From TrEMBL, chain A:
One Pfam entry name: DUF1513
Protein name: DUF1513 domain-containing protein
UniProtKB/TrEMBL annotation, chain B:
Coiled coil: none
Location(s), subcellular: Cell envelope
Full protein name: Imelysin-like domain-containing protein
Keywords attached to this entry: Signal
Amino acid sequence: MKLPEQAGVVPSSQRRRLLQMIPGGLVAAAVVGANPARALTSATNSHNTTTALPAGWHEAWVSAEGSDAEHFGLGWISPDLQQANSVLAGFRGHGMAQNPQQPAQVVMFSRAPGRELVVVDIHKQSVLKRIDCQPGYHLAGHGCFSADGRLLYSVESNYEKGSGQVVVRDTSSWAIVADYSSGGIGPHEVRLMPDQQTLVIANGGLLTHPDRKEEVLNLDSMDSSLVYMNGATGEILSQWRLPESKASIRHLDVAPDGTVAIATQVQRAAMHNNDLVALGAIHKPGQPLQLLAEPSMVLAQFDDYMGSVVINARERVAGFSSPRGNLVAFWNIDSLELAGYYRFHDVCGLACSRDQKHFVLSNSAGEVRLLDAASLKENRTLRMSWNDRHWDNHMNSLLVPDLHLSFRAAANPVTSA
Amino acid sequence: MNKLLLSSLCVAAVGWLAGCDGTRPNDVASLTQESLDLAIEQVVDNTIIPATNDFLSASQDLSGSLEEFCAAPDRAGLETLQERWKTLATNWYGVLPFNFGPVNDDVVFPAYLYIDSYRLRGTNYTETVRTEIDNLLASSDELNTTYFEGKTFQYVGLLALEVALFETAASQNSNLDAVVAEFVSTPRKCELASGLAGLMEEKAQYIVDGWNTSYLEGESSYRTLFLAGDLDGSTPLVVLITSVQEYLDYLDARDTVNNVAQLSANNWAQMSKGIDVIEELLEGTDASTVSLLGLMDNSGNGTNADTVRANIAAAREAIADQDSVSFNSMAAALDGNCKREIPDSLDVSLGINFTDGD
């Protein structure tokens, strides 16, 4: 017994129909930018490549996991070995970053307003180091390494001053070596651009305080922006804003050509209307931000919330997930047209397989599904389900040498797929 | 004795007790996967599928009455038509809390949207519909069901039928005689109403067929798939609870009672129907041998079950008083029950991302 296909792929004729059918649709572009002349071009970034893997290397899908304080940790799956394992962290993690010079080393950042990050060695299946924020700071959930692995950038909030910061740590000692303004409030994600020097930062614009949990303290004055920063000096190179000031830029991904896809979350409580807001946007070097504004029927089902974004460089398609809408939708990053969609309960984690052939989707029920990146149809034979695991908001695809070591003498029971 | 055998005996005992004296045996059913599965199956068979059948019947009745009325429009015929519309709209609120499966099986063109345009984002399209009807009456297009199949959701469904049947297009006059007179003087209005009713019947039939025969043109009915748990990465219980929770959230967030069925003044009947089916979902019907609240009672969560019961009773009081502030407040309270008391008591997780995003 099989469930009929739940994915939708949108042929060009239907795309035209969709665009024609929606009256009063959103305006499809706009932005207020500064210094767009700072073109950001580069050949590569941290995206996986399609070249053959070196012997002994395997792909690992890594995610924060756990549904309660006793089980919060960093989990990983080997699709080749069909195994999963995890390390307990003691806090609910969010995003993660792989050290490019020590690929078995992964840093997991606490979800805001947590104050701790852990350095995990997945070979040893253990936490190597626990690092607290400096006083008056909390983490935002994401960070990235410099290309040479010597520096770790984490986006943090100085909640005493109410400012967003990019905190730079020397990975040899984990000492803080710099502390830059993010150019806004409430930075949430940071990535390294393909030039391997520039950082791109999603300033969510939301002021929070650890004592007030997830309460937003500046709904009326929130100011979200996309910022490009010189990672060596902290100099802000350019700053971009969306037309809807209550759309908080939360997550982003970067294609090898420097195209950035951003995913937002709308603070509806701060709005005085019920107008549909474009939740995703594309930014290309030297150009204004372009909104993914159609079709409104699909946008409406995101329920004002995009949880994760990933670009498939080979297909030039970006996927955006919404756990609120139980939906992933895909847009072409050049034509800005909807390419397809897929329904999946409580989906949030979204990655590309290293060969770029699949989108990898995860949910809180421990399920993993793969969609063909070209057809956007699910390959049901590749489904995985881990009964006792709860994949959290983000999943990354990493390449790890000797991955089998990470399943030896497993720290936690391994469930079968 | 293994767990499965024990559970089967419990379920069998439940059925036996029900057969003996007619007493609902919820007080003896224990919370097991088997008893939950049985409760869900009974919800599908005793509540959801009958609700979709009732909706289809009402749509057919409306089409039939329209045919009679249009043959010889008069005041009595219009009164019948308006009652048929009220029954249809009320019955829709027996389906709407279960907004999954064939009701909502397409991201872009879901069936529910073409029945109930307000459900999407709480946008009131009354003026849009009025303008469209004016344009259609002035046009020469053939206004049959095929014509309306090509229209976007804003222009069709319950609202369009309500505007057509409860007021004049010319002056928005709700006087019965004036409405009848317009049907007599403007025969295209009958074409229009019949076309809209035909589309409504098509959508209702699609929903019934999906639940009972073939889902998404596949070989299985949605009933079969749903009860087998072959869903979008979820379980039947999570789908049920989540759908009802979203419906309750919708009532409060969109102030639904003050925005739907305003021309017909049928809004409170619709709210009442929604509460009826939610109570059926939770308490079961006369045909049920096990229910979700009964399982909560018998798993040490009677306090939570009573909280839900009290909120349902309070929602009914608000409906009786036609107090929209209190009603929305109780819808919000029940929404909270669906997020916390019910899933916690039934030992089910609705999803960590769902409840707690970042």
